[in-house]
Structure formats: C-alpha cells, structure tokens
Specification:
single chain; Hydantoin permease; mainly alpha
Length: 457
C-alpha cells in the first residue's frame, strides 16, 4: 500500500462506494503524509483570529487575558475530532448530519440549519473585514491604487483561485501561506527579547491567573469565538476530511471486522491531523498575543479602522527594525489572504450543502455541486467587498463575527453531543479520557456561549 494516498479530482468524495477503499497507513511517516484538512483550517484561522482579534485583545488588556487565548485554542479540538470522526465513519456532510438532529423543522430543514443560516448574516461582516484588511495592506504597499480598487481586485483574485480549485491545490496553497507567515512571526517574537519590550516570565504568569478586566470582556468573548477552531471551522473540517478522502478510503459502513479496522485506522490519521494543526495554530496564536501585549499595549495602540494595518506593523518594526515593515506587509498580505482564500473555499462548499438540504440543488451530483461552488466563488467575495466598502471598520467587523461565533458554538456542541452519544457505532466508542476532554470542552464552550447571549440581550 502506498504511504501517501492520491485523491483524484474526478472522484466524488461525497458519495461512498467500495471502489475507493484503501487501507490506512500504519507507520508514523505514512500518517504524516496523509495529513492536510487541519492545516486548511489553520490557514482560515490565522488572519482574522490570530493577526487581528488576538493581537487586538493583547493590545487592549495586556498580558492579563493570555489565558483566554490559550483556553480558546485548546478547548475546542475535541469537538473538531468528533465532527471529523462522524464524517469518516458515516460519510455525511455537516448539513446532512444537521438535518438528522432532533428538534423542530421548517420546510425540509432542521432548526440547526436555519440557526446556522441566520448566524451567517453576521459572519458576512467578519470576512468583509478580512477582505478589507487585504485591501488596506495592498494600498499601503502600492498606494497608486485606492483601497476600493484593491478591495475589488482582492475579490477577483480570490474568486479565480477558488471557482475551479480542487482539494489538492487548496491544501498545498494553504500550507505554503501559513508556513511563510509563521516563520516571520516567530522571528519577530525571538528578536523582541532583545528590545525594551522583552517579555518576562512574570508577564506570562500574570496572564495565566484567569483574570478578566471588565473593559476587555467584549473583545475576549470575540477572541474566544474566533481564535483556535471556531464553530464555523469545526463545521468546515467535515468537508476537508471528506475531500481528503478519509471516508471513501473507509468505505460504506458495515459490520465487518475489515471496515472497523479501516475506520479506526483513518480516524487515527485524522486525530494526528487535528492535533498537530492545533499545535501549530496554538503556537502562532500565543506569539501574536504576546507581541500585541508587549508592544501595542505598552505603546497604547489598539488596531482600529483604516489604521489597523499600520498599527499592527509595530509588532514587527519595533522588534526587527524599520526595515521589517515591507516584510510585514507581505507577511500580513499572505496571512490575511490565506484566511480569505480558505474561508471562500469553505463557504462555497457549506452553502452548497445547505442549499441541497433545503431542496434547492442536488449537492451530491458532482456537476451541480461544482456549478454551485463556481457561482458562489464569485458571489461571496463581492458581497464581502460591498460590506467592507460600506462599513469601513475591519476590526469591528471581524470582532462582531467572532462574537456570534461564540453563539454558533452552542449549535456545534449540541451536534457533537448527538454524534458522540446517539450516532457513534458502539465499536468506535472512545476512551474515558476522551469523554472527559469532550465534556470539559462542552461545558466551557456552553458557558461562554450563554454569556455571549446574555450580553447581547
């Protein structure tokens, strides 16, 4: 058996047959070669969650809320594992799985689908802020075009990359972009220690005391929702696991020992994918937060409005020197565009799936699905662009998206509970330690989500 499985773009990853069955890799190297879905999520996370929301929280609160960021990154991965596991053994998309959850229905769709659709109204603002960040960065680097022009150009480029983009391209492009900016960020954090902004162990210790200043509550809730894997990224993970081929390699569920062995093997690969990508985005998130707390909080600068990109550049120029600004602009462009790119790839799939569950299209027909993805690949970027050009407050737009993501996590917890305790085959029941982690995650997320709802009301 080859150590790395190649997935043909001509195959339909959303329909399980016995023709694509493949034994899982047994060596650690073989498992590493079959990772990928989690790193697409990392690319989607780092722009809005890490570069903007995390750094903004550090700028406002200093080191004291460092624990919020760390808890946010670590506590959600169990839900991500549950969604990935469900995708692998059942082959169901998120919306198909949501449509089987208990509760009222309106038309052909379950209440969870309608709730998700309502929340997406506010999520449009979040990605609108991202495309605004891309445009602002390009305008600073190339001021001969106005922000409006760069906003529309960014929309066109993103659409061109996605409307016929297959999984392999999306995976490789996402990994490349996140790798480049991660190296730059770690270099900045390293050289920070040789400046007047050097971080002391007492600073980090003060951020791990579970203190939350009242003035930082709103930003902290938004950062919790948007850093690490948010509710939407957990849902997106389903599609990337399916398109990677994990479910097709397992094959349709049956009672055979061979199916069980394949399911456990590919679920183990998915576990490595989710956990290693969690390590990556947790380290990057921590680095961004510490830079924001050490540099921006000390200087009294909080990213906002059209000055967002300029303000964020201080975390590099104050540590690496003025020469680093041009490198920062390229890095910021990479990380913001990676989020825009990965978000558009995910949005086109999940909305097409939702339209299928509503009875508007046949999502499982490859030709119909590709057409829907192609159309939405143009619709969404221009919708995001119009919102940004009208509101012109990228940080606020992104934080609003993060705030409602905390509420979306309540739906995600409900679905994950149903997957774990109502749908999971008995032979795939995890260890008690896994269940403990699952319930810790659920309790923390529900507490934050309920608090978010109370705050809104």
């Amino acid at each position: 058996m080859p150590e790395q499985v190649k997935v043909s773009t001509d195959e339909n990853p959303y329909v399980l047959t016995g023709e694509a069955i493949c034994e899982p890799p047994t060596t650690f190297t073989g498992k590493l070669k079959n990772l990928g879905p989690g790193f697409i999520l990392s690319a989607a996370i780092v722009g809005s969650g890490e570069l903007i929301a995390t750094t903004t929280l550090g700028a406002e609160a200093g080191f004291v809320t460092f624990w919020v960021i760390m808890v946010s990154c670590l506590v959600k991965v169990t839900l991500q594992l549950e969604f990935g596991k469900h995708a692998i053994y059942s082959g169901e998309t998120v919306m198909a799985a949501f449509n089987r959850l208990p509760g009222p229905r309106w038309g052909q769709a379950n209440w969870t689908i309608w709730s998700w659709l309502f929340i997406q109204i506010f999520k449009l603002l979040q990605v609108g802020g991202i495309i605004g960040g891309v445009a602002l960065t390009l305008h600073i680097a190339f001021s001969w075009l106005p922000v409006t022009a760069w906003t529309l150009i960014s929309a066109v480029v993103a659409a061109l990359l996605i409307f016929k983009g297959y999984y392999q391209f999306i995976e490789k492009f996402s990994i490349l972009m996140i790798s480049l900016f991660t190296l730059l960020t770690f270099a900045s954090l390293f050289f920070l220690q040789y400046t007047g902004y050097a971080i002391q162990w007492d600073d980090i210790a003060s951020g791990l005391q579970f203190s939350l200043p009242p003035a930082a509550v709103g930003v902290a809730i938004a950062a919790f929702g948007i850093t690490g894997v948010g509710g939407d990224e957990i849902m997106y993970y389903n599609y990337w696991c399916l398109e990677k081929g994990y479910a097709r390699f397992v094959g349709p569920m049956d009672d055979s020992p061979e199916w069980l062995q394949r399911a456990k093997g590919w679920i183990a690969v998915m576990y490595w994918d989710a956990l290693l990508s969690m390590v990556v985005y947790t380290l990057v998130t921590a680095a961004f937060y510490l830079l924001g707390a050490a540099v921006l909080h000390e200087r009294g600068h909080v990213p906002e409005g059209y000055d967002m990109v300029e303000t964020l550049s201080y975390i590099y120029t104050e540590t690496l020197g003025p020469w680093a600004k041009s490198m920062y602009l390229w890095g910021a462009l990479i990380v913001l565009f990676s989020t825009l790119f990965a978000a558009l790839a995910s949005w086109t799939r999940i909305f097409s799936d939702a339209f299928g569950q509503l009875g508007w299209i046949n999502f499982y027909n490859p030709a119909v699905r590709k057409k829907s993805i192609a159309i939405l690949a143009w619709v969404f970027p221009f919708a995001w662009s119009l919102l940004y050009l009208f509101i012109k407050l990228p940080v606020l737009m992104i934080l609003m998206g993060g705030f409602v993501t905390s509420i979306l996590l309540l739906v995600v917890v409900f679905a994950a509970y149903h997957f774990r305790y109502r749908r999971l085959p008995e032979k795939l029941v995890p260890s008690r330690w896994y269940d403990i982690c699952f319930w810790v995650s659920a309790v923390v997320i529900v507490a934050v989500g309920v608090y978010s709802v109370i705050t809104v009301l």
